[in-house]
Structure formats: structure tokens, C-alpha cells
Amino acid sequence: MIPGPVKVAPRVLRAMSKPMISHRSAEFGAIYDECRDLLKEFFETENEVVVMTGSGTVGMDAAIAGLVGREEKIVTISNGKFGERFTEIGERYGKAMPIAFDWGTPINLDRVEAALETGAKAVAMVHNETSVGLTNPAKEIGNMTRKHDAIFIVDGISSIGGNQFKTDEWGIDIAITGSQKALAVPPGLAMVSVSSRSEARFLERSASYYADLKAHLKSARKQPTQTPYTPAVPLFFALQEALHMAKEEGFESRRSRTAMQAGAVRAAADALDIKLFPQINEFSPYSNTVTAMKIPEGISDDRLRGGMKKQGVVVSGGQEKLKGKIFRIGTMGVCSSGDILRTIQTLELVLAKEGKLPNRGAGVEAASKVLGV
Ligand SMILES: Cc1ncc(COP(=O)(O)O)c(C=O)c1O
């Protein structure tokens, strides 16, 4: 029950064990074509989508390496670990203008506007900050970037397909996701959508040889459709099958199911008097793909998560400065109501054993109400 890699359905795992095919063959081209088409629906975009072999970070790297030259400015917004990663990448390739907020607190839109007034080629932001369980205002910042004629790069790695994410409507030029999140594929692929507006402003030559979006777009436009270098072929088999599954469920149904499941986790936390970690406001709601909660007083991270793990339920801890302070439950992909209830029940069991639970059963009760089971 961690926020990625998530559980993978048996039919997706089985798809990976098919015999290898050439990545320059018509068979591979047909798989890649279908994935690209379905990913457009998944991203809610008319833009082209390419699939890169590498984890989600390769997509973040590719976007900045291909767009921002050494002397060019990029505004990087952060309120958690992954926003900070954008700042590090921005500093590596260009001139980063970081706008940092305390982890888990909402972005102040005025500060972003003020930074944009000083001129920047691009803005990079994480939509769903997995480290703190908070969703950032992509629509509002998308409007600002259009007004200031900057390219808008959004890390939707733990968001797309789980939270509402409207690539085109929100003016997102480059959107990125990773295979191990809402798509419920094993880790190892990054999916990146690219607007023609951003393509027109790509550098003549990307600073990265491997993570070169121009090269990926060029190969994806060949017949048969292909990738510039040998891709992780079994992961493409898995991606195709996982997209079929998501399409069968319906992309919108998957998002609303995910929202309901996160709502169930939040209701259980409330019933058990466990405090949610992030601060929210009208532009920054709680994440529907990961719920970050404060570890209750008097119990250690080790005993809480270790105790749950002994019962067979794995949840995540806090990262870096939040280590030992929060724990996180993921609700992405093919997670079931049973998975949610078992997780809450196990949490209750561990808290009860530690003498930290006066109202045993209240969490499961609250979660089942939201789930309608
Ligand atoms: C929001 C966000 N961005 C970036 C990453 C990094 O992705 P990866 O570990 O696949 O490179 C993650 C991974 O958890 C994430 O949640």
C-alpha cells in the first residue's frame, strides 16, 4: 500500500513473460502506437506522448535538458521532495529560480507570479507532491505561464490517472508520469506528453544524449513506430495490457474510484483521531493518490510500520526531514476496497496492541461507509 511501485495485476505480469520481439519490428510498432493513443486519453491531451525507458525522473530530466539552456532561467516550485528534485535538475542544466515553501504547505501564487515577472523560459512544478500528500494548483499556474509566455512542465508522476489532471485544459506543455503509479505497471517507464508549443522552443541540441525528447519524438514518428534506443520491451507489453485494463474500467471511473478510496483512508484517519499531515487551501486539496498522516504520539515509526509489515501490509514512512514523523498510504492503480479495509484494520490492530486505540473498529467502520461496502 505504498505510493508506488503499486500492486500489479496478474494479467499485466503475464503479459511481460511473452517472447521477446525486435523493437524495430512492425509488431513492436503496433504496440507502441496503441500505447501512445491510449496514453493521450489517460493524459487528457491531444499532444503527442512518448514512452522512455527509465523511471519517472528520466522524464523530468528530459524535459529540462531539452528546453533550458545554460544561460536560461527556469522557475522551479517546491513544497516537498520531488519539487526540490526539479530545482536540482534546473540547476544542473540552466539557471534555476527556486520558489520553495515549507514541505506540505500550499504554494503562494503571488510569489510564483512575481518570479515570472522577472522572465523565465519555463516553470516546473510537481502536481501531486507524493512526499507530503498534497496537490498543487496546476490550473492556476498554467494560466500564469501562458500570460508570461513560459513553458509549463508538470511532474504528474503520482497524479495522472489518479487525481484529476487535465493536460490541455490546464495549459501543460510537458506532462510526465511513471509506470509504477496509477497505471499499475512495474517501474521502469516514463511517459511524457509534449505540446507543439514546447517542441518549437526545444534547444537545438538537448544537454542529455539518452533523455533527448527530440530523438524520442523523431523515432515515434517513423514507420514502424519506434524508440531511439532499445526499450524495455517487456514493460511495453505490460503497459499495453495495463492500459487495456484501465480503458475497460474507464479512465474516469478509475479516477473516481481512487478518489473514493483516498476519501475512505481520510475518513478512517479522522475516526481514529490520526492527523493528516499537509495543510490545504482552496487551490491545494489533499491528494487522492497518497494520504500522508502524522504518526500518533507515543508510538515509533518502527513499531507502527514494522508492526503493520509483520501482518503483511506495507505502508511508506516519511522521506528525509519527515522520517519518523509521518506515514503514507497509497491509493493508486488497481487497489481494491478489500485492500483499503485490510490496511485500516491492520493499522487499528497495531495501534490497539500499543495501547493507542480507544475506539477500535471506528476506522474500518468509517472507511466502509465511504466505500459503500
Ligand atoms: C511526484 C514524484 N515525482 C518524481 C518521482 C520520481 O520517480 P522515479 O522514482 O520513478 O524516478 C516520484 C516517485 O515517487 C514522485 O512521486
Polypeptide structure, described:
With about 375 residues, the chain is α/β, with parallel strands linked by helices. It folds into 2 domains: about 20-230 and about 240-250, Aspartate Aminotransferase, domain 2, CATH 3.40.640; about 250-365, Alpha-Beta Complex (Aspartate Aminotransferase, domain 1). Helices cover about 40% and strands about 15% of the residues. The protein contains 13 helices and 12 strands. It has helices at about 10-15, 25-45, 55-65, 80-95, 110-115, 140-145, 195-200, 215-220, 235-250, 250-270, 300-310, 335-355, 360-370; strands at about 50-55, 75-80, 95-100, 120-125, 130, 135, 150-155, 175-180, 190-195, 290-295, 315, 325-330. The strands form 3 sheets. It has a 7-stranded mixed β-sheet with strand order 1-9-8-7-4-2-3, sandwiched between helices. Strands 10-12-11 form a 3-stranded antiparallel β-sheet, with helices on one face. A hairpin with an 8-residue loop joins strand 11 and strand 12 (about 325-330). Helix 3 (about 55-65) runs parallel beside helix 4 and helix 10 runs antiparallel to helix 13 (about 360-370). The chain is globular, with a radius of gyration of 21 Å. The chain starts with 9 loop residues before the first helix and ends with a helix. The model has no long low-confidence stretch (mean pLDDT about 95).
How many beta-strand segments? Answer: 12
In CATH terms, the superfamily of the largest domain is Type I PLP-dependent aspartate aminotransferase-like (Major domain)
Q: Assess the beta-strand content as a share of residues.
A: 5-15%
Which segments are poorly predicted (pLDDT under 50) over 5 or more consecutive residues?
Answer: none
| Average pLDDT reading | 97
